[in-house]
Write a structure and sequence with these properties.
homodimer, 195 residues, mainly alpha, DNA-binding
Amino acid sequence: MARKQGSHSQTTGPKVREAALRLIARHGCAAVSMRQIAAEVGVQAGALYNYTPDKQSLLFDLMQSHMLELLEAWNLQDHSGDAMSRLQRFTQFHIQFHLTRSDQVFVSYMELRNLSAENFAKIEAMRRGYEGALEGILQAGEAEGVFDIPDTRVAAMALIAMLTGLNNWYRDDGRLTIAQIEQIYWDLVRKSVEA
Amino acid sequence: MARKQGSHSQTTGPKVREAALRLIARHGCAAVSMRQIAAEVGVQAGALYNYTPDKQSLLFDLMQSHMLELLEAWNLQDHSGDAMSRLQRFTQFHIQFHLTRSDQVFVSYMELRNLSAENFAKIEAMRRGYEGALEGILQAGEAEGVFDIPDTRVAAMALIAMLTGLNNWYRDDGRLTIAQIEQIYWDLVRKSVEA
DNA sequence: GTTGCAAATGAACGTCCGTTCAATAAACTT
DNA sequence: AAGTTTATTGAACGGACGTTCATTTGCAAC
């Protein structure tokens, strides 16, 4: 009736975040109770408070982790070469990163309104950093003369929305492979900015 | 302590839906209580049940109304002419319709997961109808030879995501007018599908 | 001016919520 | 093997939830 066999914070901690992520992605933060998360992990609700000070912090940690992962993964990419090939790599990177993290993406977009003002500002700053990376590529292409874009900021927002929207309809058992979809999206992206 | 002066179902009913829409768009369905909605209307919680059988039905009604309005408004548009001008009108229509209904759009996209299976199916069917309208234009353009699109279904989903994404960043007091934004988006849309 | 209908009240129902905490058992250290 | 630390239980807290309903009041028609 107390500590269970094989229990360790290093295994329970990740399980808590995984369960919270899955449940919040499915039903929304407000619709998921701490008791439901605990049940998914296999503990009582009180045990969750060894891993998070409260529910809001748990949500913010999930979103912040996702954004940090995104920025770090992007920084590890190859940023050399001309604007056209950089744009192609961005497109491919964005699709692959987001399609393999559908729960994180869902939570990070849907639960923004449940964050406190300061936590919201932190997430938004990271998101603007990522958007800025794409805008930088678009500006470079303008300078090279290979792109013709009336407004690089708007174009960056539009392209990211287009790419991320893929998460809303892609299904593993669908008609097309990820590679095929990547090719189709790259065609759309390339043509939309090409001079 | 009972019926209030000037109370009529024809005024209270719409106020209930407006308050529910605004609050659900801001905080999410699960995060908004019937008591909060009632307070916004200026009645007690019990009075809401003169206007909806339960909370779930209220949410579904809001979403269904939005989709019906969308399909009806689209049907009233001019559908004549060549594919290129039809696509331009679709782009303009979509932006104007969605930008002027940000709360409805927000709720209709964010609260899908809170619908029962059958209600979800109804909304999805309407959404597919709208997506099909765009895909029809793209197919027509292919037939005319003015568009070059590897997959019209994917392109339709991608373009709608791009256009609807505008709702996530547009602000009335922003740098650009709606007309300017329409022009930028139309450039992106046109170029992305042009032969 | 009475009657009948419409609209809202406010209290109540049982249930679930996030969170706290003393007690307790497992794991680790020596 | 004893002692310390770590992880969990289970009960409890006050409060909020969606929903129901007998009651009361305002309105409209005769």
